[in-house]
Design goal:
mainly alpha
Amino acid sequence: MLWMPAAVAQKKQIAQAKTYIKSGKELDKAENMMTTLLKDSANMNNEKIHLTLFDAIRAQYEQVNEKMYLKQPVDTAQLFVQAEKMFIALERFDSVEARPNKKGVIKIKYRDKHAEFLNDYRQNLFSGGVYYVRKGQLDKAYNIMNLYIDCARQPLFQAYDYERNDTLLPEAAHCTLYCGYMMHDTPKALKYLSLAMKDSIHADYIDQYLAHVYNEENDTTRYLETLNRGFLRSPTHPFFFPHIIDYYNHRGETQKMQSLVDEALKADSTNALFRFAQSTLLLNTGKYDECIAICKQLIEDNDSFSEAYCNIALAYFNQAVEMDKKVKLTRSQRQKIRQLYALSQPYMEKFRELEPDKQQKWLPVLYTIYLNLNLGPQFDEIDQLRRKN
């Protein structure tokens, strides 16, 4: 076997790759040959290898693009794959070209030409990100959107001043936030946070994703700040108010819950969610008649509002339990207790019907009701359920 000097072998590979590119065949081989050469640090400054690699990738991009234009069967994702690789190849080449030579001199010959070429294709990176999100390929979506945004800091594109001129940057950052949130990758979610916050059109979505991210990180301060910001901007949005209420409720901060409900009702006094929250506050503070009145109105407006049935049932049930705690009860008091349990029964049974999976809410209540009302068959059925749990 003849020994071939490395330089000769290298030239032969470059020549072979150029032959592939010229023929338009086996372009992936040409790409792989140049990629392999660049893995050797001794070849990193070789202009011909970098440019041949780029030509191989561009030729693949053009073939995919032509097939799409001619409406021939083609994998759309390949257009974005090749576009991404073109940017990576020329950005890497630009960073190599920007290094000073042995004499300390920097000679940049290709930057303007390459930047002008890639600028015309940059929209494909954004489109690729949107495409991958729709396909649920979040890691790919993140990577290509990251590349799109990163162009703004690349010296290769300094003449285009994307930070000032590209109005899609905030939306691209919003996309990276979404991908990071969905992948449970906090660093990725927050990488372009300040830029994403400039996407005012999708502000509500952004704050939802952020709230989830901060909650996963147990950052309660930022979690609550984000929820409050979202609520102040969009008080009737279905996400922010319930999560703030839940946050305060778990901490027993009734006064803060009341203030929030008051603010919400100022924004929309007819909102069913706000009125229900008010009824729950009334229930928790023992104002049972007011709670019942609100919930009956909610049911009148929507007879499938399951939680309203539950609140009414609990308003009657809690009164019965409170009275039953007394040591000595008169006959009239005992009758009143039975009456309250009887009033609670149909509402909790309706709640059970609407929410069969929420046993933890209706099972113990119905157990107590059936026991106190001496309802044998109903009690036996609910007791069997209780024993299974």
